Structures are given as structure tokens and as C-alpha cells.
Amino acid sequence: MTIAMPVLGAGTFRLKGEDAYNSVTMALEAGYRHIDTAQIYGNEKEVGAAIADSGIARSEIFLTTKIWMDKFGKEAFLPSIRQSLADLQVEYVDLLLIHWPLKNEEVAMSDYLASLKEVKELGMAKQIGISNFTVAQMQQAIDILGAEAIYTNQVEVHPYLQNRKVVDFCRENGIIVTGYMPFAYGDVLKDETIARIAEKHQATTAQTVLAWMRQNEFVTIPSSTKRANIESNLKASEVVLDEADMAAIAELDRNHRLANPDFAPEWD
Ligand SMILES: NC(=O)c1ccc[n+]([C@@H]2O[C@H](COP(=O)([O-])OP(=O)(O)OC[C@H]3O[C@@H](n4cnc5c(N)ncnc54)[C@H](OP(=O)(O)O)[C@@H]3O)[C@@H](O)[C@H]2O)c1
Question: What is the pTM of this model?
Fold first, then answer.
């Protein structure tokens, strides 16, 4: 059985060892059923242990991982996914993403996307998708796989980086937008406009940002090491912003990009 991706998940970037185990445990206890990890986070074992120890049925959890760039070659791709599944203690992930497109295509996109598709055909991933793909790269991926095969593009989205070109292209092609770093790693939580809207709704700034994400139909995956934050973020589902609030936050867009490593593509 495969479940649709819950709109709010728990991210695990930067969480190592016990922090990763505890964060995922707290998230599952709070009621999250969507967990986002990646090979490069170095925490798939802890994420897997937390899921196994939770006692929650595998079929109730939507689990995403991402394959790292050094594993895109034909020889390395499948073995690396088998290793991820072993570390995660699962027989399949719900979603497998290409973590970053290759800037210089050391491995051709048509080759690594063929491997991605094979993982799905083998039943090791229920859905497949991409992350950090630009509009041009999404078009390339669509030409290779077909739009209907691409479940999501996971990209940086928050009030300070609204990524409209990528978002519009995803929408035109029926690709879900998963917005990562919804709090811009804390930056947007200090914003005065967001604080004013939060006060009006007797909500926290974090809940206000998450409500804005949800009402824009973004799936998102904030991370936290604190039970209080994990629990209150989930309660953002109770916060409903009005049109004026949504418009005011839309105006905060300022191309404030945090995830921009040297291997990043030429952004839109
Ligand atoms: N595909 C990609 O290339 C990519 C890149 C980056 C991230 N991601 C994914 O997206 C997830 C989210 O990004 P992120 O973790 O970098 O950044 P983020 O979710 O924007 O911010 C995380 C920070 O926000 C704080 N926080 C969380 N809830 C809070 C609350 N209610 N009040 C105040 N502070 C709060 C956390 O601190 P506390 O621990 O103190 O709560 C943490 O320092 C990652 O974990 C990862 O799964 C994907």
C-alpha cells in the first residue's frame, strides 16, 4: 500500500546520532507520519531505528530518502539504495529523490533517471522524484521520464525565497512542490510582518509560516530537536490565514537563498 504524502513532515538535515533518533521519535509520538531523510545526512540508521522502535505500522508512515551524487553511476545506484533500505530497516521507501542534479552531467541525466525508475520498478520506492532541479532541468527530466512519473521537486521555499518560476512550472506539470527550509533556518521567524500576523491569530511565527506554506499548497518538512516545537508546528494545521495575510507574506519575497553550494545549478 502507498499513502499520499502528508503535507507536513519532519525533516532531519543536520541531525546526527541521538538527536536524529530523538527528533524522529518525538515527531512520530506527536503524530507526524512523514519523515524526510537523505543518504548524505548520515542518519538513516537512527531514523530507521526510531521508526522501528515506534511500533507504528510501516504502511502508515511516508518515508523519503535521497540518493547522493556520488552514487548516480549505474554500478553504484542500486547497491546504495539497498544500503539505505537496510539502514532504514524497511523494504521500500515511499519516495526516493535525486538529491541534486549533476551540474556537469558526469553521469548523464538520462542514465541516472533510468536507474531511479528501475528502483521504482523493483518495488524499492513507491514514488520517485527530484530535488533542487531548475525549470530547464525539470523539462529535461520530463522529457526523459514523463511528467506523471515525477512525484515532487523538493526545493528551497519560504517567505524570503518563494521560488515562483519553479513553483509555476511544477504546477503546470502536476508535480508536487515540497518546500524545504520553511523557516529559512530561523531567519523568517524574526520577521516583523509575520510576527504581526501571528499575533492576530494568536499563533507562533513558525505556525504562521507553516499555515502560509499549506495554504499555498506546498508540502513542507521543518526540522526540530525540541518536543515543544515539533508539537506546536503540527498544530499549524489549525491556523487559517486570510487573504490579506497571504498577500502580506507574498510581498516578503527577497531571493534570500540559503542552500547554495558550489555544485548548485544556475538557479532560475
Ligand atoms: N533537498 C535538499 O537539498 C534539502 C536542503 C535542506 C533541507 N532539506 C530538508 O528540509 C528540512 C528542513 O530544513 P532545515 O532543517 O534546514 O531548516 P528549517 O526547518 O527551516 O529550520 C530548522 C530550524 O528551525 C528551528 N525551529 C523549528 N521549529 C521551530 C519553532 N516552532 N520555533 C522556533 N524555531 C523552530 C529549529 O531549531 P530547534 O531544533 O531548536 O527547534 C532549527 O534550528 C531538512 O531537515 C531536510 O529534511 C532538504
Answer: 0.98
